[in-house]
Amino acid sequence: MSGNPRLSQAHLLGIRPLNASDIELIFSTAEQFKEVLNRPIKKVPSLRDITVVNLFFENSTRTRISFELAEKRLSADVINFSASASSVNKGETLIDTVNNILSMKVDMVVMRHPAPGAADLLARKVRATIINAGDGTHEHPTQALLDAFSMRERLGDLRGRKVAIIGDILHSRVALSNILCLQLLGAQVRVCGPPTLIPKWIGALGAEVSYDVRETLRWADVANVLRIQMERQDLRYFPSLREYAMYFGINKPMLDELDRPILIMHPGPINRGVELTSDVVDSGHSIILDQVENGVAIRMAVLYLLAPRDRMNPS
Question: Which residue from 216, 219, 282, 293 could staple onto 192, CB 3.0 to 4.6 Å apart?
Fold first, then answer.
């Protein structure tokens, strides 16, 4: 990497603190790292001598592996922390846990936590760079960045493009981050799902609201479909998964009826047969595997742009 690019923020706590220039810088840096990932030797020394801890207080497969791979591709020293095997289960506070880790000379913390605002709290209390890998039902900024990056790869400039976010908006940290990111890039955003799964405040963000999936698919250039998060639902928001699939699930005949092709996305994991049928997931409309690949490049870019400069390898 040439030059000394920096984001306007010292941490990545969410999309809201970023500006359009920050997003463009992340995308241009990710493009360079994606080229690295397609080389025979998929590694650069950019974060050699930087130590990163992945601090996950919730179960995660895709995000944790994507961050860990990004860190290792940048030659960082990586520590993986599992809350289930830690002193957190013995009553230790989040701040004490992190401070104990930082006393081991850790430079950056990638954290997923079930409490909204946990990453913000950490950024105010500890001396390390914090990257939010998802905080409760609040934000998931790197997912939004990789989603928008994947859309732009296929569609070019997103200004004026129509993006539908379909599914469990109420319990999704992906939805809020996507809405904020896409609006910064000039896209039109619509949310769609059962009335019980669309929060009342969503209109205040400037997103359209619809309860009709077929009409929304006719409107959209992209449909980013969210998982039904049963583990976060302590109330019954719809009668059954079968009924949800009947009224809000997307199948291949629905896409075949459209007068133009649209892109289908999903942040994973997918409930096949609920929000998407297998023939949609595996169709030419789907760019779900592109999202997975781009996730590593985007997270490499974020780590590189936020890493402490005085500790970085100059090459």
Answer: 216
